[in-house]
Specification:
25 helices; 531 residues; globular; single chain; ABC-2 type transport system permease protein; 2 domains
């Protein structure tokens, strides 16, 4: 078939280009799921403890965040894995699929590389086919890895249930690979294609949450809902996976049909005509940086506000859980005997602070992306704008964005917790606790700036650093990681508010560290060639 000629060579090229990126995604998802599962026997070693945990599934906020809670009557480790890890892992895999597919389809056209390849012996549909085969293959490999690894990590999990659970996760990733294939034909730019696919993912998760709060009808409109309705580890049934297969096939047929009806590099949805004069958001490098990442910033902020509201909603339930769970009671006692609700909120805020480091790295990586796309050199050469001002303006946008993200988390948690506790002062206290993590987040932004200025081709190393920080933060106490290693994380030096006394010195040291890293990075950027 001439339209698919060269597909095999393009698949090999994709695997060569992403020889680090794809294994990093697979490893990251596996560590997130398997590492979390490994903690279950330690935290909940008795049937009574697990049933106390199952009682939390009655909270509407928990249902929206996790799922319908199948198997709560006999809350086994398998039911815990399916209920508490299925939804979050499915979303993570879907995001992986969206980003990988756009990277090797729409971004290739946007950069002009696809047109150069098409000048050779490459069929019209070969680039899209190669991207689809690769990303779907990654989902299948990841599903097989998780399916066989789960019973090894936790022997109480059955192999059949684990394979069904993993198949549901791979199905979600495959469906959103196909969804992204369609949005990549409709949208002219990669960011718009990612945004459209991510919006559909958010809609899918919202439908699942609304359905699980109701009679379950809306959940059948969501691929995430189909995955959870396999009822893995409970009374497993595989037929909901067929819905995902059917939708994937329909979407792929639609993607190829749309691909045949558009020109190379164009999108079927026409972009709006630009304004005759620039708006205030394009009046300088700082506002330009904000304009370029407004969609990303909006998504992160809304997500953190919603998750913060969930944290505030479950805070009061922590006290009940602690009374019924010996392990939880010991945990709260080790936290200094603090109020269990506030200790629970402080723990979640710490995790959200580390996750907010992902926003900082994504935002701080924008100058490198603009440079790689060739848009910075004409800007610096054709205007009075200096390199230092360009780099610092982008970093300023990152710092302001991180304030919005963590402030949204603290405000969401504080408002809901104040409503449930009846104490309005909790709004300010929880908001302050969330904002205390900003200096640690800024250290990661400074690290990204340093790599951008000194080793631009190694900027991806900052993501490996964040992965290590999150892993040690989540599983360090369980694995008894030495303190000298844990202390390498900037988040280890942030006072755990509101359960601890506020001490400004560590935060000032972290802020100074961020300034130092930034200064070194900007100085290096001024001296190196544009890459």
């Amino acid at each position: 078939m001439s339209t698919l000629r060269g597909t095999g060579a393009l698949i090999r090229l994709i695997l060569r280009r992403d020889r680090i990126r794809i294994p990093a995604w697979i490893l990251g998802v596996a560590v997130f799921l398997l590492g979390s599962v490994a903690t279950f026997p330690v935290a909940l070693d008795s049937a009574a403890d697990r049933q106390a945990r199952a009682a939390l599934m009655d909270n509407p906020a928990t249902v929206v965040l996790t799922g319908p809670g199948f198997g709560r009557q006999d809350y086994t480790f398998g039911a815990m894995v399916a209920n508490e890890m299925g939804g979050m892992t499915a979303v993570l895999i879907a995001l992986m699929s969206i980003l990988l597919l756009v990277r090797h389809s729409r971004h290739e056209e946007e950069s002009g590389r696809a047109e150069l390849l098409r000048a050779g012996v490459v069929g019209r549909h070969a680039p899209l086919t190669a991207a689809l085969v690769t990303v779907i293959g990654v989902n299948l490999v990841l599903g097989a890895l998780l399916g066989f690894a789960l019973p090894v990590v936790l022997p109480e999990l059955s192999t059949a249930g684990s394979l069904l659970f993993a198949a549901g996760l791979a199905m979600v990733g495959t469906v959103f690979t196909a969804v992204t294939a369609v949005t990549a034909q409709l949208m002219e730019h990669g960011r718009a294609a990612v945004g459209a696919a991510a919006s559909l993912l958010a809609l899918s998760y919202a439908l699942r949450g609304a359905g699980d709060l109701g009679d379950g009808t809306l959940s059948w409109l969501s691929p995430v809902g189909w995955s959870q309705r396999t009822r893995a580890y409970v009374d497993g049934t595989g037929w909901p996976l067929l819905l995902g297969v059917a939708l994937t096939v329909l979407l792929l047929l639609g993607a190829f049909l749309l691909r045949s009806r558009r020109d190379e590099g164009a999108g079927l949805v026409r972009g709006r005509s630009g304004r005759a004069t620039a708006s205030a958001l394009l009046s300088g490098p700082f506002t330009l940086a904000l304009r370029l990442q407004r969609g990303v910033l909006t998504g992160w902020t809304v997500g953190f506000v919603l998750f913060g509201a969930f944290v505030g909603a479950i805070g009061e339930q922590a006290a009940v859980f602690a009374r019924e769970n010996e392990t939880a009671r010991r945990y709260f006692e080790q936290a200094g005997g603090a109020d269990s609700a506030e200790t629970m909120i402080a723990t979640y805020l710490s995790l959200m602070g580390m996750v907010a480091g992902g926003f900082a790295l994504q935002s701080a990586g924008l100058p490198r992306a603009e440079e790689s796309a060739g848009r910075v050199e004409p800007l610096l050469g054709g205007t009075p704008l200096s390199r230092s001002r360009w780099a610092l303006s982008g970093l300023a946008a990152t710092l302001c964005g991180s304030v919005l993200v963590m402030g949204g988390a603290g405000l969401g948690a504080g408002l809901v917790y104040a409503g449930t506790s009846g104490d309005p002062s909790n709004v300010v206290r929880i908001l302050g606790a969330a904002l205390a993590y900003l200096p640690a987040v800024w250290v990661l932004a400074g690290l990204s700036t340093l790599l951008f200025g000194v080793l631009p081709k190694a900027t991806g190393l900052s993501w490996l650093v964040l992965t290590g920080i999150v892993f040690v933060g989540m599983f360090g106490p369980l694995l008894r990681v030495p303190d000298r290693i844990s202390d390498l994380s900037p988040f280890a030096h942030v006072p755990t508010l509101p359960t601890e006394e506020f001490t400004p010195v560590p935060l000032l040291v972290l802020a100074a560290t961020a300034v130092l890293l930034t200064a070194i990075g900007v100085a290096g950027y001024r001296r190196r060639d544009t890459a």
